[in-house]
Specification:
heterodimer, A: 295 residues, alpha+beta, Immunoglobulin-like, C8orf32 fold, four-stranded antiparallel beta sheet, 21% helix, 38% strand, B: 868 residues, Dna Ligase, domain 1, 3 domains, four-stranded parallel beta sheet, 29 helices, globular
Chain lengths: 295, 868
């Protein structure tokens, strides 16, 4: 599928901002199943300085600084992405027993496997606690193939938890999400990651977009989409298999990948530090527009 | 596991093991007696003593020292020791403890006996330290780029990735050819076998070099007979290298690099050292809020505008350095700093991310890393260390807990001596290790070598640990010949031992021949840009100097009021004089007047209590001596290196007098103490006038003092002539005394007090340095001087305000005020109007100054809350 994605972020400040430094992780990364056309990122007011680099995880980061006094900051990204039906793992892919995967991760000297051990450790938003292991265990009976077990966990999170955009913020701790059984895609991805890491597996956080389908018979609403997040589990020696607990599925052509890291903290779409500004308000709109294939 | 154990005893023979030195029998020295200073020095049977090879058997390189010490004798040494402590205290050498609410400082303790090391032994040690710095630099370069050490399994990934010092944002952040490690502090100690082992590495803020210098300076002053012409290696050239290395890091501005020392501020435990080094190395001492990133560069906010910064000597933990990319919940840092580093526009020593290698768990892997990264064998072994993240090593640690020391891998993290744990503590620790194995290491528990320490006139052997310092020099590293020795069991860190009042020693490296004493005041290096206007003064420093002046003056007036009040109280008690003006003095001090007492005696006691409270106990009351002194000290410490050494000594004495007054003071002693305080304050401001260059810094200090003084004088005036409860002669006399004008009045008028004459002397006489007119003229002149060199958009606000106040005073109709007396309402109204008209613009002056010169006040903040 081909998409044109428009992601617009708008800040209004009650006072003038004299200086701000920002980092945007809004430019989609290349993958074997994803082709990116050149993106256009428009920043108003014009930054005095901007520079793109790759971060530790290989994500594209745009740094920019605005040095003129402003009360409004608008960042608009327009990008064209083609997602192929070519993700390396699907529902029926074979995988080793989950304990075997843990053992390989611990012991195999293959450099790629060694590097993946970073994703089995605590990270700023995901601190391991026994409760996560307890929640995960029913999905992981001895000898169950890894992908089967994770698919089951994915399904349970989807069933047990209520999607509630008013319950959590980025600061809500994960154990509260677990005890209250509610949250948003970011919380569900973090929870899945915590469960997998608690068992000794490597899991990472993926940020991106999802094409939303309008209800049958209704037109697609422009700008009503949102950023999305899911997770990926590492199959030692084979690669990363993605799961979307919010939608109880394995991501396919409708999931557009932006960036990945240990957790949300590594891939936040827009961060910044400013001087001045007073209080501020934020508007975000995302539009994932599929290209209509010529019939 | 055995391979990793090789870090311990197996390799110990590489350096200085049991030097085959021919020890000298101590008794052989003819003029020494067996029962002197050293006669019964108790050498332990099993350990290694730095001075004695065996009881009575002196190591040869201590011969001269032992003789010199015996000549001086225990009594004299104790006397010199007190002298050393006095000198250190007077120089304000302190160690600041975070947990002390009053921010009071712990004094630095130094033993007068140096620790001697032969040049040969040091040379071997230095080769090992130099190699270690090269190795750790190479390791950092690898871990923040290709990560071969991890990918090739030379290191377990968890050891790096689970350490909070691993900062993914720093990945590939240094431009090619830049160094990760510029400074390196190494803790090391000799074990019972005489071999040195490394106990830890410091890369974040390798403290101690400043204290080492100060120890050397003070000891040389107190013990000239030991230090003059002593055959010891001097430290000055090491510091010269340090300076040259920092300057050389300014790649874009090699001719006149601007190097700053970034400190967390006066609350940092080692702030003394930051100020000391900044002074010594001629660096600007700055805090995070003094710096800003614009156009991809780092700038210092100064009175004259932004001044580019090329190199930062960093004494702030790396996670607190950039809220954009490191820790988002910290606003201590400089947003955008890491990006400026990536651009190559600023160099940091040490680079951001270097705290990673303070991890003690690395010790076990260094022999292999050294072969892989440098192609060399590791010269200096570490203390045998087992990282609990490895299952086999963890079992070893848990099985041998009673013989090991367990440490957290965090710098300054907790530490447990396994042999000292009871069953419950042991079980708890095991549980913690099992829950978080990556976070712990076990280390062999090794008795340290002992060195002589002066205790009650005799020398006693005490365990010592050394901190050595290494600085980058060209392509390699250079080691300081000497360093900081301290008395320690080896369990505590430098930080902890300083907090507990640990004792330090001067570490000597002997040279073959006497070395000339080189002044530690270095010669100038390279071209120097002569600036005289002081435009480059950081705005924050200007702000602090202004408030230093204000606090000093406010403290002075409060002390004067208190002194006067105690004086009146005593006169009343003795001679039954008129005491009613005491109520007005209490009003001036903003203390409630006690209710009418049943007897004069009861009134005496309640008044005395009120005054003593304000002077000593009360620290909540904003105009109490304690609160004002806190403000004075806080601002004084923030501008530590703008004050001369003598000024600083006076401030230290004032601190003792105010914060630690004798117990159970009566009114008379209180008055005497205040007398003393006033002298110290007068000396402090006099010295500041004499020694501070009269440029910007001084101007702000002076403006602060005189603005405070004129405001206070105006208030006194109002009190005496308008709002007094008991107006009249006694109160006028009090006002003249408070402003130090009674003598001047008597000399000039040779008459009884007359209000018109008082008004003339105190308001209008511009020749009288205590008059309002004089203060206004001085303020006007100094504010004018500020503006001539500082361009500012608000430049006219202060000038307008001071002009308004001054003109009002000058235009006042003295005749209209001339008939004043306490019962004439008309002229009282006239006077009120005049005082208000002078007062109001002055109140706006402080805000105007802040707005024009210190408007850095706004701190940056996060666009989005990011912290979990």
């Amino acid at each position: 599928m081909k998409y044109t994605i428009t992601h617009r972020t708008l800040y209004h400040y009650s006072g003038g901002v004299a200086l701000c430094h920002n980092q945007a992780r809004l430019l989609p990364r290349e993958a074997s199943w994803q082709r990116c056309r050149p993106s256009r990122i428009t920043i108003q007011p014009r930054p005095a300085l901007s520079a793109e680099r790759q971060d530790f995880f290989g994500n594209r980061v745009l740094y920019f600084a605005i040095q003129d006094i402003h009360q409004r900051l608008e960042v608009t990204l327009v990008t064209e992405v083609q997602v192929l039906d070519a993700r390396p793992f699907g529902q029926s892919s074979p995988s080793p027993a989950w304990e075997q995967a843990c053992k390989m991760l611990r012991e195999d000297p293959d450099p790629e496997i060694i590097e993946a051990r970073l994703f089995a450790l605590d990270s700023p938003f995901v601190t391991l606690q026994p409760i996560f292991r307890e929640y995960a265990e029913p999905s992981f009976p001895p000898g169950r193939p890894l992908l089967d077990a994770v698919a089951n966990l994915n399904q349970r999170i989807n069933q047990d938890f209520t999607y509630d955009p008013h319950f959590t913020t980025t600061a809500t701790p994960l154990d509260e999400v677990l005890s209250e059984r509610r949250g948003v895609c970011q919380d569900f991805a973090h929870l899945g990651i915590a469960c997998l890491r608690a068992l000794g597996l490597a899991a990472r956080y993926v940020s991106g977009y999802l094409e939303t389908l309008p209800p049958p018979g209704q037109p697609r609403l422009v700008g009503a989409d949102a950023s999305h997040a899911w997770l990926a589990v590492y199959i030692p020696g084979a690669g990363w298999a993605e799961f979307d607990p919010t939608n109880n599925c394995m991501p396919g052509e409708r999931h557009i990948t932006l960036a990945w890291g240990r957790d949300y903290g590594d891939v936040a779409p827009l961060t910044g530090v400013m001087t001045g500004g007073g209080s501020h308000s934020l508007e975000v709109s995302v539009d994932v527009e599929p290209h209509v294939e010529a019939a | 596991m055995t391979a990793r154990l090789a870090t311990g005893f197996a390799m110990a023979s590489s350096v200085g093991t049991c030097m085959p030195e021919a020890s000298v029998a101590y008794q052989d020295h003819s003029n020494l007696t067996g029962n002197g200073l050293l006669g019964d020095y108790p050498v332990a049977a099993s350990g290694y003593d730095e001075m004695f090879a065996a009881p009575g058997l002196l190591r040869p390189h201590w011969g001269d020292m032992a003789r010199a010490l015996e000549e001086i004798g225990g009594v004299e040494l104790e006397r010199r020791h007190s002298e050393i402590q006095r000198l250190l205290q007077a120089d304000g050498v302190t160690y600041n403890t975070y947990d002390d609410p009053r921010g009071s400082l712990r004094h630095w303790l130094v033993d007068p006996i140096p620790l001697l090391m032969t040049g040969e032994e040091w040379a071997a040690l230095a080769t090992g330290l130099e190699q270690r710095s090269r190795l750790l630099n190479a390791l950092l370069a690898d871990l923040y780029d290709r990560r071969l050490a991890i990918r090739q399994s030379w290191l377990p990934p968890e050891l790096i990735y689970a350490h909070p010092g691993f900062l993914p944002s720093c990945h590939q952040s240094l431009p090619a050819g830049c160094r990760w490690l510029t400074f390196h502090g190494v803790d090391l100690a000799r074990g019972p076998d005489g071999a040195f082992r490394i106990h830890g590495d410091r890369t974040q803020s390798p403290s101690g070099a400043g204290y080492t210098l100060e120890n050397r300076v003070i000891l040389a002053r107190a013990l000239p007979m030991l230090y003059r012409d002593a055959p010891l290696r001097r430290l000055a050239s090491f510091l010269e290298t340090e300076r040259a290395t920092l300057a050389g890091m300014a790649r874009h501005n090699p001719d006149s690099p601007h190097v700053v020392l970034l400190t967390p501020g006066p609350n940092s435990p080692v702030y003394f050292e930051h100020a000391y080094l900044a002074n010594y190395l001629s660096l600007s001492l700055v805090e995070g809020e003094d710096l800003v990133v614009r156009d991809g560069r780092v700038w210092l906010k100064t009175l004259g505008g932004l001044r580019p910064v090329d190199v930062i000597l960093r004494r702030v933990s790396d996670v607190f350095c950039d809220p954009l990319e490191l820790r988002g919940d910290s606003l201590l840092g400089i947003p955008g700093l890491l990006q400026a580093v990536r651009g190559g526009h600023v160099a940091l020593a040490n680079a951001l991310g270097s705290s990673l290698i303070e991890n003690p768990g690395l010790a076990a892997f260094l022999p292999l890393l050294c072969r892989q990264l440098l192609g060399e064998d590791l010269r200096l072994p570490s203390l045998a260390t087992w990282w609990c993240g490895d299952p086999a090593e963890r079992s070893h640690v848990l099985a041998n807990l009673g013989r090991l020391v367990v440490r957290s891998i965090l710098s300054d993290g907790p530490c447990w001596d396994g042999s000292q744990l009871d069953a419950a503590a042991r079980a708890h620790l095991i549980e913690r290790i099992r829950a978080n194995p990556y976070q712990f290491v076990g280390q062999e528990s090794l008795p340290l070598s002992t060195a002589p320490v002066l205790e009650e006139g005799r020398l006693a052997p005490r365990p010592v640990i050394l901190r050595g310092f290494v600085v980058a020099d060209g392509d390699g590293y250079r080691v300081m010949p000497g360093g900081l020795a301290r008395v320690s069991s080896g369990l505590d860190t430098l930080q902890a031992s300083l907090q507990n009042g640990g004792i330090s020693k001067d570490w000597w490296v002997l040279a073959p021949t006497p070395q000339r004493h080189v002044s530690l005041l270095r010669q100038s290096y390279g071209p120097i840009v002569v600036t005289r206007d002081g435009n480059d003064l950081p705005s924050r420093v200007a702000d602090d100097l202004y408030w230093l002046g204000r606090y000093l003056e406010r403290l002075d007036s409060t002390a004067r009021l208190l002194r006067e009040a105690f004086g009146r109280l005593l006169e009343w008690e003795q001679d039954n004089t008129d005491e009613r003006c005491l109520d007005d003095l209490l009003d001036a001090l903003e203390v409630p007047v006690p209710p009418v007492a049943e007897s004069p005696r009861a009134r005496f006691f309640s008044l005395r209590q009120e005054l003593l409270d304000l002077m000593i106990t009360d620290s909540e009351h904003p105009s109490s001596m304690q609160a004002l002194f806190d403000g004075l000290l806080r601002t004084g410490r923030a501008v530590r290196n703008h004050l001369g050494d003598d000024s600083w000594r006076l401030l230290n004495r004032l601190q003792q007098s105010i914060q630690e007054p004798p117990k159970g003071l009566g009114a008379r002693q209180a008055r005497e103490l205040l007398e003393e305080d006033l002298m110290l304050m007068a000396a402090f401001s006099g010295l500041s006038n004499e020694t501070m260059p009269h440029h910007h810094g001084w101007l702000f200090f002076d403006i602060g003092r005189h603005l405070e003084r004129v405001l206070h004088t105006l208030e006194l005036f109002k009190l005496a002539f308008i709002t007094a409860r008991n107006p009249g002669l006694p109160l006028w006399e009090v006002v003249l005394t408070l402003t130090d004008n009674l003598t001047a009045y008597r000399r000039r008028y040779r008459s009884a007090l007359h209000p018109t004459a008082i008004i003339d002397l105190l308001l209008f006489d511009e020749g009288n340095p205590r008059s309002v007119g004089y203060q206004l003229r001085r303020l006007q002149r100094n504010i004018g001087r500020l503006h001539r060199s500082v361009s500012s958009t608000y430049r006219n606000a202060e000038e307008r305000l001071i002009l308004e106040a001054f003109t009002t005073l000058q235009l006042a109709d003295i005749e209209a005020l001339a008939t004043i007396s306490h019962d004439s309402t008309r002229s009282s109204t006239e006077l009120t109007r005049l005082l208000d008209a002078v007062h109001t613009p002055l109140l706006g002056l402080s805000d105007a100054l802040t707005h024009s010169h210190f408007s850095h006040a706004e701190v940056p903040r996060q666009l989005i809350t990011m912290q979990p």
